[in-house]
Amino acid sequence: MSATDGSNQPLISAKGLRKEYGAFTAVDGIDFHVNKGESFGFLGPNGAGKSTTMRIIAATLTRTAGEITVLGKDPEVSGPEIRAHLGVVPQQDNLDNSLTIEDNLYVYGRYFGLSKKYIRTKIEELLTFAQLEEKRGVKVEALSGGMKRRLTIARALVSEPEILMLDEPTTGLDPQARHILWDRLFRLKEQGVTLLITTHYMDEAEQLCDRLIVMDKGKIMAEDSPAGLIKKYSTKEVLEVRFGSDRNAQYSDQLRAMCERIEVLPDRVLMYSDDCEELLHQVVLAGMAPTTSLVRRSSLEDVFLRLTGRTLVE
Amino acid sequence: MVIKDLTRKGSLQIVDVPKVLRNGSLYIAQARIWNMLQWKWSIAGEAFANPMFYLLSIGIGIGKFVNAHQPTGVDGVKYLVFLAPALMASACIIGASNEVMHPVLEGFKWNKNFFAMNATPISATQIANGVLISALARALFGTVIYYSALLIFGGVSGLRSLWLIPATLYCAAAFAAMMLGFCAAIENSDLLMNIVNRLLIMPLFLFSGTFYSLSTMPKFLQFIGWLSPLWHATEIGRWISYGHHISFLAIAIHFAYMTIMLIVGLRFAHHHFKRRLSK
Known about the structure:
By secondary structure, chain A is an alpha/beta fold.
């Protein structure tokens, strides 16, 4: 318990953390720490090593090398003691399909050794929180994707965890369901729950994370707050222009000379500048009439592109 | 709509880790039994129908024929009495192995529920033990029903025959432990089902001295019986039920064999549960 008694020690701390599967290196010697009450994100494309890192933190995967402590303990030595204080929401819902919503919450509470009386009361709260009161007696197999996701999150909260770990929490959800979920996660954060989130959606990372690391091929490419990352690795604004697939590449030299940096994607060219309205004006003046154009503010997607030369969702 | 925030004391206050370390296997068993109760009618139906079919067709049907040609009986008793411990043991073994096979496939592959269990303080070892305990709970249910049917049909009698229930369960535990390890080791589920049903369960049933004494078989086939937990259980069962003549040493060997199966099976299961859950 020492690490959570209000001392300044981080809740999670990793140094040179490494995981190899034969010749393949999934996590390549990364360092990071997570403080209490923080909402910490792992941003990166599929296969970046985010889920592997999460499972090592969750004491369900052994590391090949490096050091890690979670709540002041080594996951390989104190697995059950660490897992007792984690709420885990895996990428794939792994609910008990043949049990009802209520029974899923109940048996899960029992796995933490919680008393029957406590769980019964908690179930009521969780059903309201997940907006599933009316479905309490329904078997999981009959639920929609969004409901299953909410139930998986509710299940992870039955033990009032210190750290809530969410692996791609909103993948496969419609926009409305995503916003409901984000709202629930904010509430938890306000209550002092530490959130650990992996995502390949930059809007999600921007919305939810106080601080994040950008991962690619098992390595950490950058670490900061979303705003800090954008400031450090991108311009204030981005101009997206389309000229048609042949001319995108043809104009690239000319466009590059007009701004700080450009990225030529198969379908469009991204131009980075702090004043993109002006930039667009110059592009048009130079006689390159784009078929479509869009001025937007920089996002984490641009940071990722800058750091890796690739887009997040490919 | 206004959503109330969750009340919160925090896991550091409410989660009792030593309690989970003590009772985790039982929590898993309880969840498994709840799951089984979804199929209660099919489980109960099988528990009742299985003894009825076998006792009517083989015990009474074939029994009449056997008894007519063997006035002294088989092994000195009526055919049904000879058959009873073996039928009971095989039903018990099959019931228990069903409950380790299906949940293992489901837990690791179909809905990955074992990973959810293992995300709590519960360990891989406790999950394996819990699955085995729940399988034995089902086996106990089936065994009691079978025993009652045998009482009605005259396949067992006397207080001493009640010992058949724990002896049969012990055998089911040994076999189910091996199956648990085996199912956890094999990751291709179709292959697993085929091996188990065609190459394991059927031959065990047919070559374990179930319908006639193992010594009637040619020597080269007898070894199947020696390896089979069913034969060991049947020998002990016959000794308990009607005093089938075997030496004290033989009884000790039968028990020792099942004990080794139980220990080796569990060790194997623990190893593969840990391996697959931490992959």
